[in-house]
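Open question from group meeting: does this chain pack into something compact, or does most of it stay loose? Before anyone orders reagents, we agreed to write out a predicted structure and look at it together. Recording both the input and the output here so the notebook holds the full record.
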Amino acid sequence: MKKIEEVAKGDKEKMKQMLEDYKKNPESLKKDLSGVKVDRWLCLVHKDRPIICKLYPCGRLQEVNQKTKEVKEHFIVQDDEESKKFCPGFNTEKETSLADFLATQNFWHSKQGSATFTRIMDWLVSSGFFATTPDNKNGKEKALFQSDSKVLFFLGNLLYNFDSFNTFSTDPRVVKTIYDKDATQEDFLYVEDKVFDVIKEFTNMIKDKQPTDFDFQQFINSLTKGGENK
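Structure tokens returned:
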């Protein structure tokens, strides 16, 4: 920040504008920081980082009972040597409780969406919708697909690129999350539930078919009809 202040010649308004410009053009930040030693990673999505980043170095494990579907949650501290080098929090003498730490990281705001994602992943795994790897090829649960499967690519895009779902949706509340700055947490949770509905419909339709026999376009067309019903 001292270097950026130096480049802006102490002009606070110019500094503010520069920081906004860096988000759009990271190369300009690299240029302005020329000669400065950066001893840690800089994250461009820090404000909206996913829950796994918010919790670090606290790790969260979820244990799902396959019979009852009960989910047990466990928290651990990742205090290995690499984490201690990477995370400056280990250098502080201040102690905090797990509850206070979760609150400061806005964990409870993200927990519901994370729980839905866990249910989606459990659905996919229990249905065989995961790729064969050297580690799981002899496991009790058999994978239905190889790592280059277009079926898994489609599912991955739905899960990790919500806009790919929002764009072709005809549901106004889903589309709202793309452009409306007043979209709420409930709106995004609604989209996540819709994604889950699509995944369940898709996996049920394709489970007993070969990917080459499945008409993806027909399925996509079925999703774009029905407005609130899809």
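Observations to bring back to the group:
The CA atoms of residues 150 and 212 lie 10 Å apart.
The two ends are 48 Å apart (CA to CA).
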